[in-house]
């Protein structure tokens, strides 16, 4: 099978952007290494029907950069990277395509570690792993990362509540969970157990009914999230939910959820801060999953992932303290913490 790797011009500040093509296997993919300053780049592989190459490049670069931030803040000894495969995961994906993708990852000689993301399952990763040593998130290894993500978000939410409401006790606290998938449902269960007054929403009516029934949650329509009177919002569905408009409409004082790229643009963090809404940056609070994956990369035991998971909430506490001292938004503080880590390592 012919596989060609072509280096494309990487955007400024990025290390590498590679186009991988294996026409016989139906593979066309981009692999982006944003930074390997802190270790080999690690981040999932997404399969998506992109409108054009520019859309795929925008997605893979934004996601790779996000992984640098996430891995740095979680202290994983890993840099940031991401891969995207062009195509429809439901109809175009084949084991042969995944093996070709694995071969492309292998050709990068360990500078990039791949795992599942949207459209890619543990079974797909197992096919990729037939052709590379650098595929993780395999069944029987570190397992499903979602419970780790949910636990990390829950602990950060408690830390955030302590900061905003003066107590981490969630009894009676009005919390809205947007999205009841792998992470959101697990988070909703933890919140219900902690005594929160839950409101839930999802575009999947069965998931909503289940949560309403089992967890005693109130329900709101997917498009009514920002009309609800709540104290905490936990976005666990899509990115981009916090826009100039929704930030103005939001009643909550704390935002802490699993969804990646919750802010539609960086300025929304300032807008939220101006309204005295504490937004805990997504890439800090949702690192539980990559921590779990990193334990597989580094061959570390459960104690290692638990220690790192516990550290996330501690870091959120430091970030909030620094934000209060300096009068800046927690998101700005987090970005600066990452920049300082990268500068120190580059200088070394
Ligand atoms: P998932 O696909 O299992 O769940 C997403 C849920 O959101 C689904 O139930 C879906 O029906 C629902 N949804 C979609 N659009 C919606 C809308 N407009 N309104 C309400 N609900 C909607 O995904 P997941 O693994 O639970 O991940 C959730 C989010 O967290 C994603 O943004 C993901 O990128 C991010 N994340 C996940 C992990 C992980 O370990 N799974 C790690 C880090 C970040």
Automatic annotation (TrEMBL):
The keyword Lipid biosynthesis does not apply. The active site is at residue 82. InterPro entries: Aminoacid_DH-like_N_sf, Glu/Leu/Phe/Val/Trp_DH, Glu/Leu/Phe/Val/Trp_DH_C, Glu/Leu/Phe/Val/Trp_DH_dimer, Glu/Phe/Leu/Val/Trp_DH_bac/arc, NAD(P)-bd_dom_sf. GO terms for molecular function: nucleotide binding; oxidoreductase activity, acting on the CH-NH2 group of donors, NAD or NADP as acceptor. It comes from the Bacteria. PANTHER family: LEUCINE DEHYDROGENASE (PTHR42722), VALINE DEHYDROGENASE (PTHR42722:SF1). This is Glu/Leu/Phe/Val dehydrogenase. It comes from Paracoccus liaowanqingii.
